[in-house]
Amino acid sequence: MSGERLRPAFVPDPGELVTDTQHDRVGYASAWDNRTLTLTLKAPTGDELWDTTEFRRPTVGEVLSARVARENRDRRWRGR
Q1: Strands, E, within 16-65: which ranges?
Q2: pLDDT tens digit at each of 80 positions of the chain
Q3: End-to-end CA distance of the chain
Q4: Is the pTM of this model over 0.85?
Q5: 44 and 66 in contact (C-beta within 8 Å)?
Q6: Residues 33, 50 contacting (CB under 8 angstroms)
Q7: Rounded-to-integer distance, Cα 19 and Cα 59, Å
């Protein structure tokens, strides 16, 4: 059917790091909506959630950057 999107080949598991190519951000997979083909992501630095329909596996650099951001956030919380 015209205009209908196909299920992507890669659908991440919950907690898996993903690159959102629609918003140029990296986040952890939180939920997948099979009906709308929408992935909900959680920012590595906090509780912010957002939705995307365009995503891919992250590069090694993106994984490292997300881990550093999360570690920095965790260190700030431990220091309080």
Answers
A1: 17-20, 25-33, 38-42, 49-52, 55-56
A2: 556 778 888 999 999 999 999 999 999 999 999 999 999 999 998 779 999 999 999 999 999 999 998 888 888 777 65
A3: 55
A4: no
A5: yes
A6: no
A7: 8
